[in-house]
Amino acid sequence: MVEKDTYELEKVLKNTHSSDFDKYCEANRHSMIEGNDEFGVYIKRLLAEKKLTQQNVFLKADIPERYGYKLLSGEKHTKQRDVILRICYAAKLTLDETQRALRLYELPELYAKIPRDALLMIAFNERPGSIIDVNALLRKHKLDMLRTSGSQE
């Protein structure tokens, strides 16, 4: 089943009566966000599709391996969007996949009107190299680099 984007779902909702809510949820279940473990399930599925290991992703994201596993299992939670962005970039997620991962983790999506976010969106589209290269690009434009998981909240 094809996942619908938020805009498509909003169009459907404009013509949906509250009595049809259950039908709406069933018809769009592949596009809905449910449960606290959805982020981990989503990332693990994408890693399997891309034939990447969690260990390698955490290494490329410069995130302690044990901490990364705890984030994906839901045992730990971070409020640092940069940590999730590091995982997404290291996992070779597309911009759309990254936006969905951020939504699932209940963090703000990248927003085109914020200069740093706009440059990160470009980086996810162009793939300039490693996280180090992304940080160099941010630094070149006098923007905050992607923070590491130093204070693991």
Outline the secondary-structure elements.
Layout: H1 6-14, H2 21-27, H3 38-49, H4 54-61, H5 65-73, H6 81-90, H7 95-104, H8 115-126, H9 131-140
Helix pairs in contact: 4-6, 6-7
Structural class: mainly alpha
Number of domains: 2
- Strand-residue fraction? under 5%
Shape: globular
CATH class label of the largest domain: Mainly Alpha
Helix content: 55-70%
Number of strands: 0
Radius of gyration: 17 Å
The chain-level mean pLDDT equals 90
What can be said about the biggest beta sheet? none
Q: Would you list the SSEs in sequence order as H and E?
A: HHHHHHHHH
> What are the segments in which pLDDT stays under 50 over at least 5 consecutive residues?
none
State the distance separating the first and last CA atoms.
36 Å
Oligomer: single chain
CATH architectural type of the largest domain = Orthogonal Bundle
The CATH topology name of the largest domain reads: 434 Repressor (Amino-terminal Domain)
How many individual helices? 9
Summarize the structure.
This protein has 153 residues and is mainly α. It has helices at 6-14, 21-27, 38-49, 54-61, 65-73, 81-90, 95-104, 115-126, 131-140.
Task: Give a structural overview.
There is one protein chain. By secondary structure, this protein is mainly α. The protein has nine helices and no strands. The longest helix is centred in the N-terminal third of the chain and has 12 residues, at 38-49. The chain folds into two domains: 1-32, no CATH class; 38-140, 434 Repressor (Amino-terminal Domain) (Orthogonal Bundle), CATH 1.10.260.
